[in-house]
Amino acid sequence: MAQKRSGGRPSKGDRADIKTRIPTTSRDKLYEYAELVGESVTDLTAAQLVPWIASLDLEKARLGAAQESLEIDRKTA
What we know:
Helix content is 49%, strand content 0%. It has helices spanning 24-37, 41-55, 58-66. The chain is built from three helices and no strands. The relative contact order is 0.06. The protein starts with 23 loop residues before the first helix and ends in an 11-residue tail after the last helix.
């Protein structure tokens, strides 16, 4: 009977890749920080990005995009 492997890092669940471009100086600072704190750049970035994504109000954005903007004359308002 084959032994079940154990050890290693536990799964973080279903994950997907994204790519973005940032200024080189920001990238360099991020990589240096990751090295100093012993974390991966991916984990550090996800820790900041995921809560922001969770806070996005899609319904409000949908309504705002569909709503017509009104011009207000500041002199008479």
